[in-house]
User: Which sequence fits this backbone?
């Protein structure tokens, strides 16, 4: 897999010039159309794939939300069209959706909940619980300040 440095060497420019071009900032930096074309063609030819972790650090966002469902079917039923609406809305905002079912034991475990955002690489959670939300799960989400939107359950805030 090619790096920015590989592309820079192939074209004879600096790594920062390659970065500006591949991040869509070339025109602001007054890089010529010819140079932009050379860099993008070299990136294609060398099979350059952007580093998602580096991009997340730079942007301060993963560009992905997690949809958390209970493993108990009666607690996590999605209404018809709901999943498609979530996907469509996120897609319009250039966001991805990760869907996961976890048992209550994991959602109420002091060690698991804080790791969810890090390991899932998400910016927040959509939580679909229709009933019997474990109180400890709510407390852990609040304690660790995990951004959440609750679906299909009545809450004072952050619920639809």
Assistant:
């Amino acid at each position: 897999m090619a790096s920015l440095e590989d592309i820079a060497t192939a074209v004879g420019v600096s790594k920062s010039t390659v970065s500006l071009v591949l991040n869509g900032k070339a025109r602001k930096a007054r890089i010529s159309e010819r140079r932009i074309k050379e860099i993008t063609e070299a990136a294609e030819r060398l099979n350059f794939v952007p580093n998602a972790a580096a991009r997340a650090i730079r942007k301060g966002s993963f560009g992905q939300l997690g949809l958390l469902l209970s493993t108990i079917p009666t607690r996590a039923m999605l209404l018809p069209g709901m999943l498609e609406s979530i996907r469509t809305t996120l897609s319009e905002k250039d966001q991805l959706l990760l869907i996961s079912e976890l048992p209550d034991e994991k959602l109420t475990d002091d060690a698991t909940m804080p790791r969810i955002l890090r390991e899932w690489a998400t910016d927040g959670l959509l939580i679909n619980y229709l009933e019997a939300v474990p109180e400890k799960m709510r407390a852990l989400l609040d304690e660790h300040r995990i951004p959440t939107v609750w679906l299909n359950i009545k809450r004072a805030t952050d619920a639809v």
In short: The first helix runs from residue 4 to 11. Helices lie at 4-11, 15-22, 33-45, 52-59, 82-92, 104-107, 112-120, 135-143.
